[in-house]
What does this fold into?
Amino acid sequence: MSTARVLLVTGGSRGIGASVCRLAAAAGWQVAVNYVSNIEAADAVVADIRAAGGSALAVQGDVGSEPGLASIFAAVDGAFGRLDGLVNNAGIVALPQRVDEISAERLERMFAVNVIGSIRCAQEAVRRMSTRHGGRGGAIVNLSSMAAILGAAGQYVDYAASKGAIESFTVGLSREVAAEGIRVNLVRPGVIETDIHAAGGLPDRAREMAPLIPMQRPGTADEVAHSIVYLLSDAASYVTGAALNVSGGR
Ligand code: NAP
It folds into this structure.
């Protein structure tokens, strides 16, 4: 079994997560590429990494469910036998709605995936990485959003609130495990060109938002992923509890 460090990227099959998988593998990480339903996309990321000489495995599992979480970590443990990094990237939006229109079911799913899923993955990672539990330390990067600051009024305030929860969680967890070899940071992407906008019923959102962004363009998944891979790396060895805007100035 390789001694290279192992990274789990939730939602690693598409968008920002897929870019993180490819860039982290190029930086020497072995990568567990989590996906929930798009096995073709996950397999394509794994194939790209292997073709470049890296090590990767596709790992199915819904981070918004306990059985999904159990199967993700069982697969990582079985294939790699170690964990050194986690990127809590899996996240969902929903169709534009006002707060007074949002259903209880939508709220429950939004928070199950974006908040509870991220916290549960971080728990499992800490149990494996903390020196308190006999681990070697590690790094966690959580995906927030500029929506946590801006609020996403008229679009998805529930999504923004879920990212606000991730922000508080990042601060608290970073302080809790700082003396146990684990760094915990977050990135706040702005408007990034990925499939998430179509999933939220606004396929042209990234292009349409461009005039509102000081840099006058949406960002790319790679531009976010570079910041995430930096925060995972030893180059960020004294950085914890930090929030990095990757938003073109907005
Ligand atoms: P995306 O293109 O929609 O990709 C979502 C990824 O998450 C896919 O790999 C998908 O897997 C996976 N996923 C969705 N639900 C999951 C679940 N329940 N369990 C496990 N995996 C799941 O998203 P993205 O735009 O790259 O966003 C990534 C993160 O950045 C999210 O947390 C998002 O909130 C945040 N963010 C994005 C933007 C933006 O403008 N794009 C801005 C701010 C923040 P499948 O391929 O199997 O469906």
Notes: The pocket of NAP is lined by residues 10-11, 13-17, 34-38, 41, 62-64, 89-92, 113, 143, 145, 189, 191-192, 194-196, 199 (CB under 6 Å).
